[in-house]
Structures are given as C-alpha cells and as structure tokens.
Amino acid sequence: MQSPAHPIGRAWISAGGTGAQNYDEFADDGEITEIVRANPASALAIEMPHRTPEAVAAGLSFTDSLPAAAARFAALCEQSRYRAAEQVVGLYRIAEPAGSAGRGAGDGAVSYGVFCLVDTDQISASADEPGLVIRNEDVFVAKVKERVALADAIGHLLSPILLLQTGSGEALQALLVELTGRLGAPDVTDTDPQGRSHQLWALGPGADQDRVLAAAGGGELIVADGNHRSLAAQVGGLPRFLAVVTTPESVHIQPYHRLIRDVPQAAELPDRLRAAGATVEPLPAPAEVPPPGTVHLHTAAGSYAVRLPVPSGAGVVDRLDYSAVEAVLVRDVLELDPSDKRISYVGGDYPASWLRGEVDAGRADLAVLIAPVSVADFVAVNLARAKMPRKSTWFTPKARAGLLAAELSTP
C-alpha cells in the first residue's frame, strides 16, 4: 500500500512568534482580536482577518478582509518571520507543563506528531466511500466556505488538520521519539496559553523521512480536529492538505461544552426537560464536568443534574451524551438548530467555573457541561464508520497553527 502521506513541496517554517491556537478554539471571537492586538504576527491575523483590530474598527467582513490576510502573510515572509524549506516534513513534539494532570495528561507528558501533506482523495465521509482518511462529524457549511476562500486568497495552508493514526500508531510514536531525541535543537519553539511547549524540526529527504512517511500513512487516519478544513480541501479542489499525523498515545479527549444565549423562560427549563422525559435534580453544589450518562446545566436560577432520555434500541452513537443533548435539549426543548448562532461550543480548555461565570454575568442563559468521550470509544465509532455528533471531541494537545505553512502552488 502506498502511503497517503507526503513531504511538503515548499514549506514555510516560522522563525518564532507566529504560532497560534486554531481559529475555532475560541468561545468568543473577541479573544482573537485581543491576541492579534498584542501580537500582530500571530497566525490568527491571517486565519481570521476580519477579527484584526483594524478590520473590526472598519466593520469589514471575512471576505472583505482576505486581501489584507494575503498581504500580511507575504509581509511576514519578506521580513524573515518565515523561511522556505523544500520537500520536508515537520517532526512535532509537545510537552505539557508541570501541574497539567487535571487536563488528562500527566505532568510533563510529551506528545508527538508529524506535519506532512495527505492525499485529499483519501478522505471518506461514509462507509461506502473508499479512502484511508475518515471524516467523522457533521460540519457547518459557512465555516467550510470561509476556509476555501482563505486558501484561495493566500495560497498557503497555515492550520493543519489533526489526524489520528490507528494502524501504525505505535511505530510512528517510537520513531518520532527516536528522531526528535537525536536531531539536536528544534527549528522553532513556541508556547501556548496553557503553558505547553511546541517544538518543530524540519526533516528533509532521506531514509529517516521515508520511515516517517511510511509510518504516518500505515493505517486508517481519523480526523481528530479539522473536519471543516478537510471538507474545505475537497470543495476547494486541493490535491493534498496540510496535516499533523499523531498517535492514540499522544492525545486525550477533553469535554466539549455548550453556552446558549437568549433562552426564553430559562427558569422553566427543568419542567420542560421533565416533560420531554428527562430526569432533573437540583445540584447541591455548582455544576461541574459530570460523569458519563449525566449532563450538568447551570442557569441563573441554579445548577441541575439531568439524565436525558435515549431511544430504546439506540446504537452506540445515539447513546452518547452529546447526541442526547443535541436531540432532546437543543432540538426538542429549545427548538434550536445546532448551527444556531445563539449556541457557542466551548472546548475543554475553558473550566466549568468560566462557563458558570458567563451565565452569572448575564452573557449567556444556559451552560451545558458534558462528560468527555474516551479515545477508545472515539476510535471504535470511527472504525465502525459511524458518525460522531458535531462538536463532541475536544482533543488535546492541539496542533498549533502558524508554525509551518504549506505553499499550495508547489507539488
């Protein structure tokens, strides 16, 4: 089997100071504006050009801001904030800081991956579509259109899709541990807001690169983060997309919560849930991340533990708490579509106290706290070619955008 993973024809390696969280990791886009204000070289200024301070002040739309995004990236390259490298892969190492055990990883835990290009024609969104890259969640069409337009405008990909290698993961992990241990100082080091250290080594052609690419493409690859970007690669006609291929050993799944605004008669929500078949009990303490099978809700009136009804004979996906939240709470009780702008999807980097605070401050009416899916269940669901509920897996650590950019015009 030929590996679907390939070297990057022309990569642009950061000289430092350009790394950023991916554009969709924020509960409030206003956070992006402040990050760019503090660091104009942040990749977020290119990935979300309408959220730069200048664009916000001018009231520019995403589309109106695309020329500025292209000019900004070109300027960073001219200023040597990025340097070109030919036919490389990027070996990637992420180290957790001390005190990180509460996020699912032990103190000082280390994760590994490899930046490379992956064949777009290998993406499979259903069991009857051939391909080694499994896309597993529903997506929001508007986000896909934006990612297509951005790639067209700047001619580069800055934000990688995170792929989980399910077949040769152990071999890939061992190889990356070996290579990063003997290649000397990394080409770039960056630190994210949670204190994780992100290091990248550019590895050129040769036997080591061949081994890495073989291991990266040695089995089925599951989209762990970047479902919208993977569909954008297809819609945009890209022959290959930028990915970080990682291993089950290197990732953890954190909760993925919801904040909902403009909920009518929020105080009546417990009774409306009971009428829909749910069991609702007041919590004696503030809502926290619950155990599986129970959802915690927080409103201005108090916190509640809720067991949502699951249809008789439901399959493994329909039994997930995320499916029940979408079907019962969002659609039936609140009568909202999951893509409604009143719903914010809040990843596990935000603690329960932050979500409660948003409700208590009046910026939201309802916080929905949901237990994380296990990595084992996630892999099993995907290999069975079932589809996960949207926004149900918050993988950590996430690949950092802006450390390596792939030029689209170079094979």
Helix-strand layout with pairing:
Layout: E1 5-6, E2 8-14, H1 30-38, H2 44-47, H3 53-58, H4 62-78, E3 82-95, E4 110-119, E5 123-124, E6 133-134, H5 141-154, E7 156-157, E8 161-165, H6 169-182, E9 188-191, E10 197-203, H7 207-216, E11 221-225, H8 227-235, E12 240-246, E13 252-254, E14 256-260, H9 269-275, E15 279-282, E16 295-299, E17 302-307, H10 321-333, E18 343-347, H11 352-360, E19 366-369, H12 375-383, E20 394-396, E21 404-407
Parallel strand pairs: 5-6, 6-11, 8-12
Antiparallel strand pairs: 1-4, 2-3, 2-21, 3-4, 3-10, 4-12, 7-21, 8-11, 9-10, 13-20, 14-18, 14-19, 15-17, 16-17, 16-19
Pfam family, one: DUF1015
InterPro entries: UCP033563
Organism: Actinocatenispora sera
**Class from secondary-structure proportions:** alpha+beta
Binned strand content: 25-35%
What are the low-pLDDT stretches, counting only 5+ consecutive residues below 50?
A: none
CATH first level of the largest domain: Alpha Beta
CATH architectural category of the largest domain: Alpha-Beta Complex
Question: Could you say which overall geometry the principal axes of the C-alpha atoms support?
Answer: globular
**Percent of residues in helical segments?**
25-40%
How many domains would you count in the coordinates?
A: 2
> Could you give me the name of the CATH homologous superfamily of the largest domain?
Conserved hypothetical protein from pyrococcus furiosus pfu- 392566-001, ParB domain
Largest sheet: 13 strands, mixed
CATH topology heading of the largest domain: Conserved hypothetical protein from pyrococcus furiosus pfu- 392566-001, ParB domain
Return the average pLDDT rounded to an integer: 93
Count of helix runs: 12
Cα(first) to Cα(last) distance is 21 Å
Radius of gyration: 21 Å
Number of strands: 21
Protein name: DUF1015 domain-containing protein
InterPro entries: UCP033563
